[in-house]
Amino acid sequence: MTLVPTRTVSLIPNLKVEWDNKTKTVTVTDSDTKNKLKLTVGLQSIVINTRTSSA
Asked: What are the angstrom distances between the C-alpha of 15 and each of 6, 9, 18, 43, 47?
């Protein structure tokens, strides 16, 4: 597993990073492809577009 600071990801052009404090979820969206990655604090799974995978 590789950990990358969300702040670093937010500096990449074409990627939009959003934080939902209520659900403790970070969403990274590629503005070109519209692909989304969702990570939630405390869960060991990720959502890529609509598919859930184990982290």
From this structure: 11, 7, 10, 23, 16
Please answer whether residues 18 and 29 qualify as being in contact, where contact means their C-beta atoms are separated by less than 8 angstroms: yes
Confidence of residue 55 (pLDDT cuts 50, 70, 90): low
Q: Quick count: other Cβ atoms within 10 Å of Cβ 39?
A: 15
> At residue 36, what is the residue type?
K
What's the CA gap between 18 and 34, in Å, rounded? 14
Q: What is the DSSP-derived secondary structure letter of residue 10?
A: H
Q: Per residue in 4-22, pLDDT tens?
A: 888 898 999 999 999 999 9
